[in-house]
Please model this.
Amino acid sequence: MIHILLSRLRQGHRTIPYPKSLPALPEIFRGRPVVDASKCANTSGAGSENSCQLCADVCPTEAITLHNGLPHIDLGRCLFCPECEAACPSGAIKYSNEHSLAVRGRDDLVVDGKTEYRLARQLDAELMRVFGRSLKLRVVSAGGCNGCEVDVNVLQTITWDLGRFGISYVASPRHADGLLICGPVTANMEEALRITYDAIPAPKLVIAVGACAISGGPFYQQTEQRGGAASVVPVDLFIPGCPPHPLTILDGLLRLLGKLG
Model:
């Protein structure tokens, strides 16, 4: 017994202090992209249209479209690969280390260099009364690669300790307050997802985690998938990424419950 106690003392406190302070993120972390509209403007002149098209052409999921010569990045499709950043001749697109990405509306998942990014707002007063202190989620892997699922599950470890915020995962939809969905929703998972959603008592929430669950991700052109969770069930929170960092997922959940400023 004494050896167990000594080992526990040596381990110390393992849970990160977030949200009081941010944990250290790796140098290779790519957060929310930033578009510098002034640098796009500097490409005006002969051949500028072709130069600006380069970032859109290299995007593997067609997440970038041009509007009046400016790139609009749909984070719901974005895989957070560095291809657009590398291809942009003027350096107008850069990836920041900003981890906060979750939004409430699908249309809010756009970065254009002009419009302020609208982070997720908390639930309305009635839903906060129901879910604010305790939120039970049924996790559904709807055909994903298991990347998002891993980062969702890691939130239950001692380092993140999701339970201290009153959030936990449950085995049955009948015990759940909502769904947390990963994956593009394959044809074989469509009915299962709908049945699971119907089994949750109202009121209920749906959270789409990762590019696949939002738009189909890298599988967006495949006929065997439905293009994300919103094609089958209503979605209340979108958390982009491929996969999103655990900190990004936690940030989104806490914003939904009004536990972040």
Summary: The longest helix spans residues 187-199.
